[in-house]
């Protein structure tokens, strides 16, 4: 066997990387100190009511303060977290210091809170990184107050709110006709919808790995399954608490949430429950893929071993016969017979044939 | 061993198809955009009260509008979903836009909702496809309003409501004497009853696969078990939420549901709970079938290996004896003895016989 | 190895029969149409109050109608279900048509219901069939009304109520001094008590199978375990819902149930909970029996393979030495030496002895 | 291999005894008839109040009747159950016949009940039998009435109440200053405390079996693990319901339980919850011990098989070479060469050395 | 194979030490008698209000009594438990004797209690011992009364309260402005935060063990995984009840807890829930590490066995051919042919080459 032929059985160390494990095991939501300030922080304000709409890119945090009491609905989107800025905003918009701490925390579990007239949601947006086939998270904090929503995101590059930005510009969109709670709902809806996109990608990956396992199970397949399972842990960890969170919103009796908006949140809740169920299905499927893989490897191995054992066994009688007539006794029957050799070789051939028959009769191969 | 004899151990790629996995993993209820309008949409109205009955096939959506306030019970059955039509109906019958969205959605989780005087159920009808031995689903939306029920189905070809159509025609049937809520109950009852038919087919399949596993476990059996498990995931995914949904209906205090009808819904609930239990039993049984399969494969393999090892082992001493007397030493005892050969061959035979006895004594075979 | 010696490893197809699986997977409580009318239906009425007692075997269903309002407690026992009869009784005793349907249904899940002044219990009596070592079920419906109890049984041959029949005849028995609810309790109590008898038999079977697994694990043991597990599924399926049912009765605030009787139902509840726990224990034990079986089979197999491998390995050096001195080179050392043969054979013996020592030192056997 | 060396792999039938299984599977709490009257029944009365204390050994059951209404706290301890006596006491102390039945029952699940001014607890005291390393149970019934506690025990020889007997004698003990409910609490507390002693013993056994599994896994270890698991089933079966029972007491609003005593019961509850948790931990640990055992056995087996296979494989080329030069062809190269033999034997040695190198390079051993 | 090469397969007894098992299985919270008095007991009092702060190291227990009613907030920290001292304090600060018992108990399950105006928490601080890679616990009791908090710790050397000591000294810290309940919250917060530090260490260990399993699975890895699992049992046992405990605090309606403080406790609750989730993730990951380990070991073993079997099998035909032409028959074809030897040896070479091809074609290696 050449080296490059069994290479595929060698443990692919790189694939089994422990980086994901690191991501999963190293969570410490309590130590806010770890978060480094972003280099830059972009603040964009979408200020609207049924009649008008304006979009402002602010350069100073303080500029946002004017939007607190202007009777319009204001969405203040903060991209990139700088401790000083967050605290200034929290201070002016009367966000409880504990919430400010949560905004700045790392690795928080999705949660919902209502403190002194402020409604607060913390959750993760998920993205699927196609290059590394893994799920990426970005923490987002949504602060809902009277007539304003403030969102705090980690990464200025990306979010899932572009459809929202479009809708705000349309005068006859429902968004423009409803209050800040509807804006908050729209955000959660988009985030949860995006979970399904991520799961769709992961679903495709599960499919292709299953295909691989079925066609040619190799060590690489096991690595892929193992990686998928880790992604599912990350997925479930993010989706599970969001489910509880949104259930909490639908039960909430906050004055900030208009009764008309409740049924929209219930709709989001239906979706997140389905996402969670789907997660469980994924888990089931990867589990049975692993069983299948192990079964395939064993079956192939067994097949080889069986054939080898049978061949070795079939040839053993011939060796014995060869040994018998190779002995140097003076008087061995048949030795001087003209047909002796033929008889011996014939027996060597006949015994395996007879054995084969017997084996086959017993259904051994 | 001939090729066509071990063929049955080759992984049957086709059987392990990943299409079902695709069906299971790729669910995204949030993106309504995906649904393509049906080519055709058939609207049938069954309009009845205790005295009379009429059946109309409509050509225009707008014709259905007259049935809203005619004091008869009307069942408007829409086969084939066309976005424009659904929205027109929703608009006229005052169905909330969110519900209209749900009607048009794909891959939704079964759910129940009550919004502004409209009672809404979304679930799947299940059919068993005997050709591919798989469970097929068709989404159905049941909208219950005051004096009317509107059903939206995807596939004009099939549904499970034929017994209902018969009963409507019978003047003395209970259906004719009760309100729209009883019609809604009758629909859910038929859908759930049909689940049992599907499960019966699946049960037969489980039986025949078990038979196969017991008689001659081969790779194909594993594929069948694996396929069955996927069908069970799909089954459970559909039945589980329906259970919650019907429990919700029995608890509901909607004015649309007559108190006299509640006990009928409780009856449906009993059935769906039993369907769910049965699902769990199916799972148990397929699980132990898989164990049985693996056990059978291992046992047969072990048996073969053991016999091979024993035969090889029994012949080894003969080889050694043959080797001893085949050596070319000048002075080997017995070589020139007349009975030498007989003694040697005799020993060759006696040792295995003695070994066999010892092995058997130790209960090794 | 003779055929009759490995026969015990051959899969005993008959033992692994799929009939039980059929029983488990084919449940369809919704299709009442399947039930065929019994050939005969026996109606016995036990009519009693504190003072008197009468037992009547009725020939016509209509005769039972007089017992509805006679101020005595009446137990009307119907053995053998005939649709027409059941419906006549239901009609006269004001049993809701849905309940009548349940009485006639097949494969129902145990349930309890209270509809319009009628208290209804449906459950299964269990019997242990010693011949086939399986659990048999007989559906029984208990209808409790004001002053009467009607029981519907499938099989006229057997039930578990004989002790009750005795007690009814005793004037000073508590049964005679209490109302119809106490009669109903007595029935449930007897049915649940009988579950324990069935479990006792099953327990004995578990014991004897365990004994068998320990003494000589063979394929037949696996079949027995597999069969036991199916019986446990059937047992659990019957006991679980009965538990919920009786819990429901203890919580019920029906006027039909005297408060004094509640504590008796609580007593039955304690028993059924214990039966359920016991079921779980049985499951645990059969699970670990299966583990034990697999372990035993593997261990024995391993032992054999190891000894074979060791024997083969020990003899290999001798073969090589034989080969060396059997070569036809002109000048081979020792060949012409007087002690040559002895040295060669001695080495053949010494090497295995040395190997054995080394193996033993490493603890390999 | 000598017989006494593989003896440790033989299934130790005696160790795997099915008696424990019998104990676990054969539970039938419904058939009171099975209990045989004890040969003797000892009745001891501890009668006390804050001022005084007396201890009386009664010879007749009737003597105990005077303690019902004497305004002292009386603990009537009945050791050994005789049906007639129990019924006499039940009758006089107004204990409901159902409770009397429970007192006389066998194999009951721990339960709590409050019937007509009587508070009733049934549970098992556990003892650890060091000789057979198993958990023994003794059923105890505690009947709490106004000013009296009656305990019914099966075995006159042993109980766990000695510390209580000491405390009763001490005038300034809290026991003397509180009511009958405190006495009842003290009993439950002692019983639960004793559970921990039993678990401590079992814990030691788990430790020593783990030690054994690690040092030299043999079949006996598996028997020990299997036995431990059965003990844990018995433990859990006793502790689980006691937990529910004591939770029931803490929630109870019986007049018999002084509010001041509630926090003491809560303390017992904390302990029993911890005992239950501990039980789960034990289960986890024995589970992973079994895994470890199987792994060890497999690893050792694999090691042996690998070495055997390698040795056999290394010697095979030498056999072939020996065969080549042992052929009787007329013209075989090297045969007449002076160094021929050396070359042949040298090759025989070199090939295995080269193979060994290659194997080692691939990390095969 | 040299001894030092397979040494890594030998069970590393030391690593599998049973000390941790001892720690897990031997828990008995009921026997307070076991706790030995500490040699020394240090009492430090931090007495503060918004205006001032003092820190006192007391030499006599009695000195602490003055802090009960001085209108300042007092934190009395007792390091080292001496029975007499604890009882004196409990007596003076009106702590219920049951709580005093709990303070002195060993191996208690974390619990919360409120008795007669005293709020009591018992839990464990966790530390990670880097040397032995294990989790250490130190029991702490927090007693919250009106205006005072008393903490009882076992080990004077260490605790997690240093940040608190710093904050107390800062006049403008929130701690100084709030009541004793905020002090109690701060303590629980620090303890829970410290859990995450411990889990971080454990997470690092999990990572490094996973790395090890992937790179070179050996017996030592299994020992490490087994050890990790035990640590996780200890972790979960400590975190689970703390979760329930803090949930209890957030629901508590004690007068000792200011409503403003509730949201802080809710924050701690969020953290402890996340810690618990993380624990579950750890468990998942170690579980799949074990699977991976077993798979790796099997795969490597299989690879070796397969190659050995193939080599042995390939050489078997050559042995037979050697035997054939080594027979001493008079007339063997080719023997006297000039090319005979070449033909024989050629066949010996060609057969394995042909076999290799066939094996490869069947994908056997």
Descriptive overview:
Five copies of one chain form a homopentamer. With 365 residues, chain A is α+β, with helices and mostly antiparallel strands. Helices cover 55% and strands 15% of the residues of chain A. The first copy, chain A, is built from ten helices and seven strands. A seven-stranded mixed sheet of chain A has the order 2-1-3-7-6-5-4, sandwiched between helices. In chain A, α3 (83-92) packs antiparallel against α4 (97-104) and α7 packs parallel to α9 (259-325). Chain A is rod-shaped, with a radius of gyration of 34 Å. Residues 1-15 of chain A have low confidence and may be disordered. Chains A and B meet through α7 and α9 of A and α2, β4, α8, α9 and α10 of B.
The separation of the N and C termini of chain A measures 25 Å
Shape of chain A: rod-shaped
Question: Number of DSSP strands of chain A?
Answer: 7
Radius of gyration of chain A: 34 Å
Q: Largest interface, counted with CB-CB under 8 A?
A: C-D, 65 and 70 residues
Order of helices and strands of chain A: HHEEEHHEEEEHHHHHH
Strand order of the largest sheet of chain A: 2-1-3-7-6-5-4
Average per-residue pLDDT of chain A, rounded, comes to 86
Task: Tell me about the largest β-sheet of chain A.
Answer: 7 strands, mixed
What percentage of the residues of chain A does DSSP assign to strands (E)?
15-25%
Q: Helical proportion of chain A?
A: 40-55%
Number of helices of chain A: 10
Structural class of chain A, please?
alpha+beta
Oligomeric category: homopentamer
